[in-house]
Every structure is written in structure tokens, then in C-alpha cells.
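Task: sequence design from structure.
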């Protein structure tokens, strides 16, 4: 048997009146269902013989709801609080505390009715937690414990979607296929995403069709047309709308703009502005000069417009080179060798241009290269004379007599006038005027005797001047090398200081000598050493030629004593191997010394004796005494003021 039971509610909410909990009665199984949140106070029911009993607390209420953005003139009724202790006799009053109490929410202390006195915004605060209490009106003591409840602000669709990151800018390559992703736009809605469709956004495109589209749910902007060409149009302005309520009528919307720029790809081949070009160039241009600039057109930009050039025909002599200008990408033709109008007056080149960076996707659009013809005309200029050899080398013997012919230089006028040439020497390169040149024939001859040992090479500049135009002057260089003859005798290589120990033994080598010669024979030096005829028979020293351009001096006896003689002078004859041979006599000074046991000199005398003269020590003393006597006599005459005639001559004051 099923009985229907109707519970008595102690708390009534304006919103939950439509959603009141109900009992589904049945002894076989009763349940309590509510669409709203569970009440703070609960009911407990049991079936016993088809009847039920209710056990309840004194306070019973549901969660309260209040709509945001209420615009009525009167305070908005929220709900009612009621205690079972309140018998309607006016003994109980109701008190409200917590968030917004008295400032937003008020309660009628007699009836327990709750009102909202201000307009609420869920986006500012979604719920308020309050505390309610029933008190005895007379003594203000609580008749029920204080209990907590929530007033939740119910959302309405009062916020439009907003693009917080807008406006947007994006880039996408031109010629992109349909459906290429460009950018993702995002709109946010401040309404409650958990309640209804107030925050559910749908995207659409208002401006920018038919070129672009937007995914309704994701906000991904994509290309909608193929073959969009940057060279035709490079920027598009899109307007994207975001609408809440899933795009339904009555939904709120917001917009943003997207500036889409098409970036360049290499989809345009280069081509010359003309099929043929003509330029003039002077034959006097130096190597590396730019002789032509060729303009090339390419609708692409940046790396996609970088060029490469090459000469495909007409430059078998490799006179020219073509390279791109780094800034303008023009083709620069530069000179690699000198020009000569008289040899060739024009050149016809076929040049090719191509892109440096090829995009294989667009090869079907045609060859990414072009060709053109370039005619280069050589302009004639009046050139100075040109020597047949810019550098001439000549030889002349230092024995050559004045007026001897050394050689001949030759120059010619390269122009068609073929002017006669006059020659001269740049005297700044021949200050001592060793040479002359015949002004008409270019024959060079000696003007002074030459000495190879003073100057072995003469670097002479020759001027060649056009007779018809003296301002046209060419220059040539002549290196004149003076060849050697045997005109210098050999001599000691160094100034020797030779020491002889008193303890020297016969046959001991006391010095090894060598020689040098300012001449430079082609076969090298060959020196021969010997004693002069006057000293060949002396009993003190002898000389041994070592056959290697050196000679050794040896003692012939022992027993040298310093008290007998302290120095010896040994004349040595040195002869070269020239033809005819030249020789010189060089004197070797030998000082007699007291030596230690190792042969190192300790003390040496200062007297000298010529072996060839054989003067003794006593004779030298006598000669010195005579000289001193004569000097004294002269000095006495000067001091006395008397003219004397004698060894000093005549002295007069």
C-alpha cells in the first residue's frame, strides 16, 4: 500500500519553489529526490505498516539562488527563513550575518524574509556565505544554534566574448594550398561555462572572404583560395567574430582583426629588361674596371631575387667576367685583361641570368633563366709608345772603353698614326752619366769607364717620346750588368795578430793565413802563397801553401829570446789565378812573447825588426838618439830668435 505524504518546509526560496523536493512514497522503497543542492537540514523517514515518521532538526532550508543583474525598482526577494520555535506570537526575531549581510542582503527580523538590495554580478562574486540565527526577542538569547547557508548568484548571458590577444598579425607563404593554417584566434567569455551556453563560443569570418576561412569551434584561420599571388596583392585584413550561446540568435558577440601578409616564394623567373645591350669602353681602362651594368627584372624579393650570371659565348680569350651586384643584383661585366683597339675594336657576348635559389615546386612555371646579347665597343685613345721589351737586360765588361756599344732598345707607336720615336735617358737613374743613348736609333753606349767593384748593376730608365706628340711618352727599364775582369790583387783576409812563444819548437805552425779579392772570377778564387825573394832564405820562418786558399806559417828553429828581438815582420807574396795573374805583398807581424805551459801568451815585447833589413837593437838606439839631437837643436834656435841653417832647415822669426 502506498501513502502520499506532503512534508512541511521551513525554508522557501524564490527559485526553488519551482524545484521543490518531492517524496515518492512506497513501503517497499521510499527515496528523497531534489533537483537543487541537498538541504542542510535532512529528513529521515521510515515505513512501518504503511505509515511514516519524520525526525527533523529545528532549522531546515535549501541553498538559495538569486539572479544577477536584477534591474527592478524593489528589493529582490531571495527567500524566507523560519524556525519551528516561532509560533507566530512575535517572540522570535531573525538575525543575518556574513558576506553582504546588511550591505547587500537584508532580513525581516519578524518574518525571516531575505531581500537583495543591490544588483549583483556573478563575474565579480559568484556566491555569498551567510549565517542565520533565531533569537528570543525579549532577552536576545538564541533559541536555535547559528547555522550557515549559501546564496548563489545565478548567471545570465551578460558578457560578450573578447579577444584578449587581438588584433592579430600573421604571415603565410604565397601560393599556399587551400587549408593552410595561418593563425589561431582565441576569444574568452566571462560568463559561467558550467551553466547553459552563455560561454560557449562559435567563430565566423565577417571580412576576408573568399580568401580565408575560420574553423567555427577552434578559431583556426586557414587559406580558402589556391594560388594567392604576393606580387598581385600582399596583404589582407580579416574580421573574425566570436559569438556565444553557440552562435544562436540572441547571443552576444565580439570581433577582432587579423592582418595577414603573404610572404614571398620563388615563383617568378628572372628576365633581362632587354634582349640586347650595347656599351662603349676605352681601350685604356685598367684591369678590373666595370665596363657594363645589365639590369635584370624579378618580381620576387630577398633571397628569391638573388641572381647568378655567366658568359655563355663570345669570350674565348677570357677578357671579361660577369658577377651580380650584391645590392642591386645587376650584372656587372668587368675587365680581366687589357684592351687594344688596334687588335680588336668590338666584342659580342651572350650572357645568361638565373636565380640562385630555385624552388622546385614552381619549375613547371617555366625555365628560371634568361639570355641576352651584349655588344662591347672599344674606343681608341692616343697611347704612348710601347717598348718591345718593357725590361731589357744587357752586359758590358768593366774593361770596355768609352763609347763601346752595349745594346739597343726599340719602341713603337701603338696607334694608327705610327709616329716616329725619339729616345732619351732618365738622368735621375744615371746621375754620373755613365751611359749615352742615340735619340733616333736607341743604341746605348758607355760614356765613362766602368768599375764593377764600385757598381755591378745599373738600373736605367729610358724614355720613348712620339715625335708628333711629345706629350705621349713611354718608359722602359734596362738592367746593365758590368762583367768582371781581373783588375784587383789579392790581400790578407783579415789583419792578423800573430804571437810566438819563446818556447816554440822548430816546425811549429804559428799562424794560418787566408786571402780575399774584390774580383769575382767565374771559376772562383784560387790563391797562391809564398815568401818574397828577399826573405826566402831567412833562418827563422818558412811558409807552406795548403792549396786550399790558405797558407801556414812555421818556425824553422827554436830558442827565440825576447832580449835579442821582440818582433819579426814577415813579407808574404799572394798571387791570384787570373789571366794575367795579379799579386801583392802583405806583411805579417810576429810578436815574441813569454807564454805559460799551455802556450798562452803572458807578456810580449814591443820592439820590431824587419827581417829584410837585419837591423840590430843597438843600431835602432843610435838612430833614435840622432833624431832626438836634431830636434833639440831646432828647438834651441827657435827659442833664441836666431836663424839657423842645418838639418831642420832655416828658421826665421
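Answer:
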Amino acid at each position: 500500500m502506498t501513502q502520499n505524504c506532503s512534508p512541511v518546509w521551513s525554508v522557501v526560496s524564490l527559485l526553488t519553489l519551482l524545484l521543490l523536493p518531492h517524496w515518492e512514497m512506497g513501503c517497499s522503497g521510499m527515496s528523497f529526490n531534489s533537483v537543487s543542492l541537498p538541504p542542510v537540514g535532512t529528513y529521515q523517514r521510515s515505513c512501518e505498516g504503511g505509515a511514516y515518521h519524520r525526525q527533523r532538526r529545528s532549522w531546515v532550508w535549501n541553498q538559495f539562488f538569486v539572479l544577477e543583474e536584477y534591474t527592478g525598482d524593489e528589493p529582490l526577494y531571495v527567500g524566507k527563513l523560519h524556525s519551528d520555535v516561532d509560533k507566530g506570537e512575535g517572540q522570535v526575531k531573525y538575525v543575518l550575518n556574513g558576506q553582504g549581510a546588511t550591505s547587500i542582503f537584508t532580513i525581516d527580523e519578524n518574518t525571516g524574509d531575505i531581500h537583495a538590495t543591490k544588483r549583483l554580478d556573478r563575474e565579480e562574486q559568484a556566491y555569498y556565505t551567510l549565517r542565520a540565527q533565531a533569537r528570543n526577542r525579549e532577552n536576545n538569547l538564541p533559541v536555535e544554534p547559528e547555522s550557515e547557508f549559501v546564496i548563489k548568484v545565478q548567471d545570465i548571458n551578460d558578457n560578450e566574448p573578447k579577444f584578449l590577444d587581438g588584433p592579430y598579425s600573421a604571415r603565410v607563404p604565397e601560393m599556399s594550398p587551400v587549408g593552410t593554417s595561418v593563425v589561431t584566434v582565441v576569444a574568452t567569455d566571462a560568463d559561467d561555462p558550467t551553466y547553459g551556453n552563455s560561454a560557449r563560443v562559435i567563430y565566423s569570418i565577417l571580412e576576408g572572404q573568399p580568401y580565408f576561412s575560420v574553423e567555427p569551434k577552434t578559431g583556426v584561420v586557414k587559406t580558402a583560395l589556391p594560388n594567392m599571388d604576393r606580387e598581385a596583392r600582399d596583404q589582407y585584413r580579416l574580421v573574425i567574430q566570436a559569438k556565444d550561446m553557440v552562435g544562436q540568435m540572441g547571443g552576444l558577440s565580439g570581433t577582432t582583426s587579423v592582418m595577414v601578409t603573404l610572404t614571398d616564394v620563388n615563383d617568378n623567373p628572372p628576365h633581362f629588361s632587354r634582349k640586347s645591350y650595347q656599351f662603349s669602353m676605352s681601350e685604356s681602362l685598367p684591369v678590373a674596371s666595370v665596363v657594363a651594368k645589365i639590369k635584370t627584372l624579378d618580381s620576387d624579393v630577398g633571397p628569391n631575387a638573388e641572381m647568378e650570371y655567366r658568359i655563355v659565348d663570345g669570350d674565348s680569350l677570357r677578357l671579361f667576367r660577369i658577377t651580380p651586384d650584391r645590392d642591386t643584383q645587376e650584372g656587372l661585366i668587368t675587365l680581366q685583361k687589357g684592351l687594344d683597339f688596334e687588335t680588336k675594336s668590338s666584342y659580342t657576348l651572350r650572357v645568361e641570368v638565373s636565380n640562385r635559389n630555385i624552388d622546385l615546386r614552381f619549375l613547371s612555371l617555366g625555365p628560371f633563366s634568361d639570355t641576352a646579347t651584349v655588344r662591347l665597343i672599344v674606343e681608341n685613345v692616343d697611347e704612348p709608345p710601347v717598348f718591345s721589351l718593357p725590361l731589357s737586360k744587357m752586359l758590358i765588361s768593366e774593361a770596355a772603353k768609352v763609347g763601346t756599344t752595349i745594346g739597343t732598345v726599340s719602341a713603337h707607336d701603338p696607334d694608327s698614326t705610327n709616329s716616329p720615336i725619339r729616345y732619351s735617358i732618365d738622368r735621375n737613374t744615371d746621375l754620373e752619366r755613365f751611359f749615352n743613348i742615340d735619340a733616333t736609333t736607341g743604341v746605348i753606349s758607355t760614356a765613362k769607364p766602368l768599375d764593377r767593384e764600385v757598381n755591378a748593376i745599373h738600373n736605367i730608365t729610358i724614355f720613348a717620346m712620339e715625335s708628333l706628340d711629345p706629350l705621349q711618352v713611354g718608359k722602359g727599364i734596362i738592367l746593365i750588368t758590368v762583367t768582371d775582369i781581373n783588375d784587383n790583387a789579392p790581400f790578407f783576409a783579415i789583419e792578423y795578430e800573430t804571437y810566438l812563444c819563446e818556447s816554440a819548437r822548430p816546425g811549429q805552425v804559428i799562424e794560418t793565413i787566408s786571402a780575399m779579392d774584390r774580383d769575382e772570377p767565374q771559376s772562383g778564387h784560387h790563391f797562391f802563397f809564398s815568401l818574397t825573394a828577399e826573405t826566402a832564405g831567412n833562418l827563422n820562418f818558412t811558409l807552406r801553401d795548403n792549396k786550399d786558399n790558405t797558407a801556414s806559417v812555421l818556425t824553422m828553429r827554436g830558442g827565440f829570446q825576447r832580449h835579442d828581438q821582440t818582433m819579426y815582420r814577415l813579407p808574404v807574396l799572394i798571387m791570384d789565378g787570373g789571366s794575367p795573374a795579379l799579386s801583392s805583398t802583405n806583411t805579417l807581424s810576429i810578436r815574441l812573447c813569454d807564454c805559460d805551459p799551455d802556450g798562452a801568451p803572458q807578456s810580449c815585447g814591443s820592439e820590431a825588426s824587419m827581417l829584410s833589413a837585419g837591423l840590430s837593437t843597438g843600431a835602432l838606439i843610435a838612430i833614435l838618439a840622432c833624431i832626438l839631437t836634431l830636434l833639440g837643436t831646432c828647438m834651441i834656435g827657435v827659442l833664441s830668435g836666431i836663424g839657423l841653417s842645418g838639418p831642420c832647415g832655416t828658421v826665421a822669426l
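The radius of gyration is 64 Å.
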